[in-house]
Amino acid sequence: MGMVSNNAFNGDFPKNPFNFKHYDLTYLCVLDGNRMIPSKPFQPKFDGSNCYSRCYMSLFTDLGRYHKDQDINISFSEYKDGYTLFALDLTPDLSADGMHESISRNGNLTIDLKFSKALPETVNLIVFSEYRNVIEIDKNRSIFTDY
Fold this sequence. Notes:
Blueprint: E1 2-5, H1 6-9, E2 25-32, E3 35-42, H2 53-62, H3 76-79, E4 109-115, E5 123-126, E6 134-137, E7 143-146
Antiparallel strand pairs: 1-5, 2-3, 2-4, 6-7
């Protein structure tokens, strides 16, 4: 997940749509039914204290890059300056990078965000997700979907 200016997202040429700002976020969690992800919500502080290392490390752990020889090309110092992205592994066994598939589930997700001060502009929350679905096309060119 990442937050970007609405004007940049909608094509304002002087603005960069890939400039993911933190907007002084102080709380982030996702509710999957009655389960909170992560179990202890992210509570970063992007002020001078630089207390956002847990959010930064989640990029490695939840993207399956931790203890592997794969970099994400975002340094700790760059993270708060336009590369503020949040990764959450929603699989039941926390193995989103694994080669096996998890059991399909249905339900609702709630994203809870809190900020230390009012947003200076309209913001879009960009959410990238991977999910399993089936699209079948038969010999009569009929399309069947399961998602």
